[in-house]
TrEMBL record:
The chain crosses the membrane at residues 29-48. InterPro entries: 6-blade_b-propeller_TolB-like, Sensory_adhesion_molecule. The keyword Transcription regulation does not apply. Signal peptide: none annotated. This is SMP-30/Gluconolactonase/LRE-like region domain-containing protein.
Length: 332
């Protein structure tokens, strides 16, 4: 999972607004408040390229849940409550701050490159489970395309991560209710994928955090990790069939996933490389990356064939230093 990203005001949002304000205001260009941070394009490229180990930058917030590489924009994006971009000491700058979700936290995000959009999941800070939503923003203007509430009245949910399929449908995991919401490219809630198979193991300790990281496989199915139980599921969104992938090795505490290739998956925070040679009927943990020991990996992203790991907690007095490190795998 998914800590939260803490809410704060965003100083640098004016720049992002300026970029969006000239165009058609769809349903509200984003204003000030909380949300997402994109690391300025050119600078982020320079930094990623310039340091073999990845990127480190400073900002105001403690918790940064997720970072994704945006190949077209050349920007790396991560959600948080306050501000990123890169300056001398690689300072963060807020480029997107949506006032409609100001008291929530941003969790998983995904770049939907074919449609030039960024999707972000929002929820309340734990331990409140009364709000789950997914929003989409235009990458060029940061205008919001939709903000869709996912939970119903009285539901106990925690929207956690999101991925899109080839047609632009979004799939959002519910780490509390163990289900997957499907949302159309226009933001309409379409269906909910629920299955008893998602709750493999009894006991609260095995269900503290449920469905979490999710990826869309090019063969047309979803791979989803259950954090506390450590189970990996293969889900066909068309038939809604759910299978447990038989994994050799442990995936306990698995968080945001990244698909390195159709047969290779990366799972933080224990930094495991998982491989399958039979289209994810079975798989094995084959490699491990040892990152900064005092930091916790929470999401992974792929840039030019390399995996970069976002670490959730920043350190420091005053400004917090955050690290997105390049993973070099050691075979097990
Ligand atoms: C759950 O998945 C199993 C196995 O794929 C399938 O047979 C069953 O119909 C599914 N249940 C629901 C409620 O969709």
């Amino acid at each position: 999972m998914c800590g939260d990203c803490y809410g704060a005001s965003a100083g640098g949002a004016a720049e992002a607004r300026a970029a969006g304000a000239g165009g058609r205001r769809k349903r509200g260009c984003v204003g000030t408040a909380l949300a997402l941070v994109a690391l300025a394009a050119a600078a982020a490229v320079a930094v990623l390229e310039g340091t073999a180990g990845g990127v480190s930058y400073v900002g105001d917030g403690w918790l940064h849940e997720c970072a994704k590489w945006d190949a077209d924009g050349g920007a790396c994006s991560c959600p948080t409550s306050s501000a990123p971009a890169w300056k001398e000491k690689e300072e963060e700058r807020v480029v997107l701050a949506d006032p409609d979700v100001a008291v929530r936290v941003a969790l998983g995000l995904t770049v939907d490159a074919p449609r030039g959009r960024l999707l972000i999941v929002y929820a309340y800070r734990i331990p409140r489970f009364g709000y789950s939503a997914v929003a989409a923003y235009e990458l060029t203007s940061w205008c919001r395309l939709f903000l869709t509430r996912l939970d119903g009245p009285g539901d106990s949910t925690l929207a956690d991560d999101v991925v899109v399929d080839d047609e632009g449908n979004a799939y959002v995991t519910d780490a509390k209710g163990n289900k997957i919401w499907k949302v159309s490219p226009e933001g309409e809630p379409l269906s909910v994928i629920k299955n008893a198979t998602f709750s493999q193991r009894p006991g609260w300790i095995n269900n503290l955090v449920g469905l979490n990281g999710i990826v869309y496989h090019p063969s047309g199915y979803l791979l989803v990790i259950h954090t506390s139980g450590g189970d990996l599921f293969k889900v066909d969104p068309k038939t809604r069939s759910v299978r447990v992938v038989e994994v050799k090795g442990s995936l306990k505490a698995g968080d945001g996933l990244a698909l390195l290739s159709p047969a290779r998956l990366w799972s933080p925070p224990a930094c495991r490389l998982v491989e399958s040679d039979d289209d994810w009927e079975t798989a094995a943990v084959t490699g491990r990356y040892v990152g900064p020991a005092h930091r916790i990996g929470s999401s992974a992203t792929v840039k030019d064939g390399d995996v970069y790991i976002n670490h959730i907690i920043g350190f420091g007095l005053g400004k917090k230093t955050h690290v997105i490190s390049k993973a070099a795998f050691a075979p097990l």
